[in-house]
Write a structure and sequence with these properties.
about 350 residues; 8-stranded parallel beta barrel; alpha/beta; TIM Barrel; about 15% strand; globular
């Protein structure tokens, strides 16, 4: 395993991170296999583990907490808050980035994970309803209380990354030192602004969906029907298969990428992970395996880097800074979703 420093935190983390979104009802309900994935990852040298309260609505955190029993001090543990969590019909504040919810959400996550602190606590998405100073103030209090070691953001546009840094400086608050963003061969939007901005502010960067939701595993090919249990079948619209133009474009690029991988002597999975790790602003790539076999196929990615020739060929296939499907960015400003917010 290879390691790097998470921005300016001084925390040393593995260049591959175990993501646990698939633990539980959203992916793998076999808890024994989930525990096995955690054990294998840690035994291979992975020390960065990522989850979120919303993953299977708390089940991922619960499974991970049990899997880490006796090994909690071996890992840098990351969780997130923001998304709507289940509650009663009058409990309208089980979401967002308010102090009210942050203070409740962190206690819930700590309880489910069976720990007294999080090493990194991330704001899962921006919240236009809440002043960033309100969010930073609450997170700063958690750092001072010892419940959180470092704070960060996820899928924040470059301008909001900057605003967070300015707000912390203006108010003397704990600053965001980590950004987790979507980045892959098929979704290179982060190269245009978010990655350079994170670098400028010395933020550690964790990359989510480096396999683009399964597109870069090699199991989706032109002319081949996807497996019945694949996300392409079970959730076609969300997975691009419902958009013929995007589907055809991605399939064409994947066919070419398989040739690049073959010339590099690696699998498409290894090529995809090595691509994101080649960017100097990226600290760690988040693996999101559903099965133990999928985990094993990703752990070999750090054995050697991609050649410059392979990177040049990828640039020719997918233009730097571009994205084949805008929904892969991970966050759409409300003004682009709701017409009333951009009209008088």
């Amino acid at each position: 395993m290879q390691y790097g420093i998470l921005g300016g935190t001084g925390i040393e983390v593995s260049r591959l991170c175990l993501g646990t979104m698939m633990f539980g009802a959203w992916g793998n309900t076999d808890e024994a296999e989930c525990h096995r994935m955690v054990a294998t990852a840690l035994d291979t040298g992975v020390n960065l583990v990522d989850t979120a309260d919303v993953y299977a609505f708390g089940e991922s955190e619960e499974i991970l907490g049990r899997a880490l029993k006796g090994r909690r001090d071996d890992v840098v543990l990351v969780s997130k808050f923001h998304n709507q969590m289940p509650g009663g019909p009058l409990d309208r504040n089980r979401r967002g980035n308010s102090r009210l919810w942050i203070m409740r959400a962190v206690e819930n996550s700590l309880r489910r994970l069976g720990t007294d602190h999080l090493d990194v606590y991330l704001v899962h998405r921006p919240d236009p309803r809440t002043d960033i100073e309100e969010t930073l103030g609450a997170l700063s209090d958690l750092v001072r209380a010892g419940k959180v070691r470092a704070i960060g953001t996820s899928s924040f546009p470059a301008e909001e990354i900057v605003e967070g840094q300015w707000a912390a400086q203006r108010r003397g608050l704990q600053r965001f030192t980590v950004e987790q963003l979507s980045y892959s061969v098929l979704a290179r939007h982060a190269e245009a602004a978010s990655l350079p901005t994170a670098q400028r502010h010395r933020m550690g960067v964790m990359v989510w969906s480096p396999l683009n939701g399964g597109w870069l595993t090699g199991k989706y090919r032109t002319g081949a029907e996807p497996a019945g249990d694949s996300r392409a079948r079970t959730n076609a619209d969300h997975f691009d298969f419902g958009d013929e133009q995007v589907r055809k474009r991605k399939l064409a690029v994947v066919d070419e990428l398989l040739r690049v991988a073959a010339d590099e002597g690696c699998t498409l999975v290894e090529l995809a992970l090595r691509f994101v790790l080649a960017h100097p602003g990226v600290t760690s790539a988040v693996m999101g395996p559903r099965t133990h076999d999928q985990l094993l196929s990703q752990l070999t990615a750090v054995e050697r880097p991609l050649s410059n020739e392979a990177l040049d060929r990828i640039d020719a296939l997918v233009e730097p800074g571009s994205v084949l499907n805008p929904s892969d960015i991970g966050y759409t400003p409300p003004t682009l979703k709701t017409a009333a917010l951009r009209r008088r």
